Amino acid sequence: MSDRHILTAVAWPYANGPRHIGHVSGFGVPSDVFSRYQRMAGNKVLMVSGTDEHGTPITVAADAEGVSPREIADRNNRIIVGDLAGLGMTYDLFTRTTTANHAAVSQEIFLGLLKNGYVFPKTTLGAISPSTGRTLPDRYIEGTCPICGFDGARGDQCDNCGNQLDPIDLINPRSRINGETPKFVEEEHYFLDLPAFTRALGDWLGTRKSWRPNVLNFSVNLLDDLKPRSYTRDIDWGVPVPLDGWRDRPDKRIYVWFDAVVGYLSASIEWARRSGDPEAWRQWWQAPDSDAYYFMGKDNIVFHSEIWPAQLLGYNGEGDKGGTPGSLGRLNLPTEVVSSEFLTMEGRKFSSSRQVVIYVRDFLARYDADALRYFIAAAGPENQDTDFTWAEFLRRNNDELVAGWGNLVNRTVSMAAKNVGAVPTPGELTEADRALLATTSSAFDTVGDLLGRNRQRHAASEAMRVVGEANKYLSDQAPWKLKEEPARRDTVLFTALQAVSDCNALLSPFLPHSAQKVHELLGGTGVWSPEPRIEEVTDLDDGSPYPVITGDYDAAQAVWASRPIEAGVPLAAPTPVFKKLDESIVEEELRRLEEDGDSE
Ligand SMILES: [Zn+2]
């Protein structure tokens, strides 16, 4: 047992709509499996995130509906909070980027960078409407993408190829309001001096040996061509630029991506402020022996292995221009950027606009959260793009959860309940008994090592291999044939129950909801696997209400070790832990996908 401080920094879901299972396979389930394991291992985890609510797509959605961006953000924040709590995501704090605290911390990082010279003003060409003379926000300009040739690219980003753009880059730019050609005039913006971090980022990445090779290689390659990047944008929805002459301008804000990544820090500070010890965040951000793991899908690597580390280095005064830390003090860089690849759906890319999608809430309305968590951990896109198929989901659920693990729990507990009514008292253990218990207890080292290194697919299959060993033991020893030898029968059942208890701990990070049930079937009381809760709070500074996800996770009993079961603990006849799914769901879900896809 150790007690390291571990920050689990989970990518911020964007609040322009509900999240689908492709999203949560990237940032969601892997980060929670990791955090639950680390807490069981005795470490002090701080898991933070929130909804990312600034930027153009939200203002575009608001324009389309004729409502304010805040209304769009409020609505989707609430939906996403419900989805992630339903999945059992144990955030210490899941908040949002529209809090006053977040704005203040984002502005502090900007000012720290400015003080050290890593953010600088530069005259660039900004768009104005020739007919009104007013600034045209980036989103109101469209044209042809200079990178992929897509004709509907916006002034800040091309939705076809995903590249960030400047309005001046567009070929044949036009105003989306009236079709006129915007006039480009000189105006000031602030830029992040990324080239000043080439050396410091290279030194840091050079020490990151444990990363997934594709993530590390991608990150190192980015260093070949760093260019200053615009820190401010022409937009009216975002964090104000904290400078005289800028603060009150309605048309200039900090670029959404540069405030979103600050969210890891601002959420940690908000958590500390809410905990009653406003300085508590420092243990995760400043102690030299604390660790920080960042979880995301691969489309966000650049912001976590380049932009955010550059912001941190500049704030610390550790780029080529030197400097001193800002008023918060020196901040730690990520220990590891843990990025997943993409999940596809029945061979197609997830797409909300084309309805190739299943939203988390629809999934959870029809299936158990643990079944989805298990699929993502055991068969998800950890190292390569991976396809979600309903047939494979059904197979994993029915063969591995129901017939494998669930059946082991069910037959062991029901035999002990029926024959003894309690955890039986064992006699002397045979070699076979000892061999099984050696297997289950040594699995804490092997599975734990894999989980600590975020090899979750391998960890899940290793835990299930141990379940298989226990099932084989039970078939070999056949306690149901030992009616004439009750002492031996009791020893076998005791051994099997101890194995079930061990396997339940090994599977708890993946299957927290069913782990709680198994804990109770084994006669346990109280909380084994902690659950998050949704709490209605008010903004600490401006009083506006919003929901957060939080929880009391340290009081839970789950530990990463074999816990001896106690003879005599009463056992009742078990109810099934997992639901067997009917084969017909495959066709049903495929039909649903076709119907949704046709309905646009
Ligand atoms: Zn493009």
From TrEMBL:
Its cofactor is Zn(2+). GO terms for molecular function: ligase activity. It catalyses: tRNA(Met) + L-methionine + ATP = L-methionyl-tRNA(Met) + AMP + diphosphate. A motif ('KMSKS' region) lies at residues 349-353. Residues 7-412 form the Methionyl/Leucyl tRNA synthetase domain. Is required not only for elongation of protein synthesis but also for the initiation of all mRNA translation through initiator tRNA(fMet) aminoacylation. This is Methionine--tRNA ligase. It comes from Blastococcus jejuensis. The lineage of its organism: Bacteria, Bacillati, Actinomycetota, Actinomycetes, Geodermatophilales.
